[in-house]
């Protein structure tokens, strides 16, 4: 049972994904085109508002690529984690009436988040190419590594959040508060060395780096921003080490999330 059972129920998983997408775009004329229009607009707004008007391009070369690379991966985490948390409550009729592995609902929410993540990456790639993006093998590998870390981390937290949200509906609001600060809790709009300059290299900096989103964002920076024209910044120190630790922490949260989900699984239909 559990997550392993999800792989055996791929047909049901596919149906849930299509259901979520149909509900999301019901009555929409443009449909999935909005998945491209929104990040493209966001990219242009960031370019002019922050890069040009606030002159951040003077402080960080190709700042728009640097920032948007972080924004894209954080947007993915936010959608995956938030939708996972609401997945059981949002599908309560199915949970109460049909027996199926309940992990299908959080997993389908992650897949929907991936579907919306891909257009954002496409816009990021186009913007990076304009800035002279010439990636090597290690840059591409870093992007996939960052994606893997965030996927595992978001699913683990999402399983935990979905289970708790059935029992305590305040969980959904608490998760929304967390998602409000994740952009500032990782180096999306600023450089990591700015944090170290303030916190020093002691235990506070270690705690900052233990957040899996921090190495994941830096991996996206290395994958996209560092490979653009004119960037000569070195790889953040110990990025490989912190990335491995981030993946381990993410899997730990996945184990905790799945264990909590299975523990309360028998109460879901009754509580809903």
TrEMBL record:
InterPro entries named in the record: ABC2_TM, ABC2_TM_bact-type
Membrane topology: Multi-pass membrane protein
Membrane-spanning ranges: 29-51, 63-83, 104-130, 142-167, 174-190, 239-257
This protein's record includes keyword Cell inner membrane: yes
Keyword list, A-Z: Cell inner membrane, Cell membrane, Membrane, Transmembrane, Transmembrane helix, Transport
GO biological process: lipopolysaccharide transport
Annotated localization: Cell inner membrane; Cell membrane
Span of domain ABC transmembrane type-2: 30-264
GO molecular function, one term: ABC-type transporter activity
Any one annotated GO CC term: plasma membrane
Chief localization: membrane
Family stated for the protein in its record: Belongs to the ABC-2 integral membrane protein family.
Protein's UniProt name: Transport permease protein
Species for this entry: Nanchangia anserum
């Amino acid at each position: 049972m559990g997550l392993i059972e999800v792989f055996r129920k791929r047909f049901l998983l596919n149906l849930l994904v299509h259901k979520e997408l149909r509900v999301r775009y019901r009555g929409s004329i443009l449909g999935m085109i909005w998945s491209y229009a929104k990040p493209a607009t966001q990219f242009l707004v960031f370019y002019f508002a922050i890069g040009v008007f606030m002159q951040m391009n003077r402080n960080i070369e190709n700042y728009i690529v640097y920032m948007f690379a972080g924004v894209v991966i954080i947007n993915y985490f936010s959608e995956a984690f938030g939708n996972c948390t609401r997945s059981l409550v949002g599908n309560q009729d199915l949970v109460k009436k049909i027996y199926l592995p309940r992990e299908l609902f959080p997993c389908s929410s992650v897949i929907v988040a991936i579907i919306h993540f891909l257009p954002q990456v496409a816009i990021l790639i186009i913007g990076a190419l304009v800035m002279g993006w010439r990636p090597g093998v290690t840059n591409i590998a870093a992007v996939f590594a960052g994606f893997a870390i965030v996927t595992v981390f978001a699913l683990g937290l999402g399983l935990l959040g979905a289970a708790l949200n059935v029992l305590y509906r305040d969980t959904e609001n608490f998760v929304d508060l967390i998602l409000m600060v994740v952009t500032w809790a990782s180096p999306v709009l600023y450089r990591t060395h700015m944090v170290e300059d303030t916190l020093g290299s002691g235990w506070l900096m270690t705690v900052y780096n233990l957040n899996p989103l921090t190495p994941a964002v830096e991996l996206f920076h290395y994958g996209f921003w560092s490979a653009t024209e004119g960037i000569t910044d070195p790889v953040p120190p110990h990025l490989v080490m912190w990335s491995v630790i981030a993946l381990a922490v993410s899997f730990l949260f996945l184990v905790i999330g799945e264990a909590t989900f299975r523990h309360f699984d028998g109460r879901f239909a009754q509580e809903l």
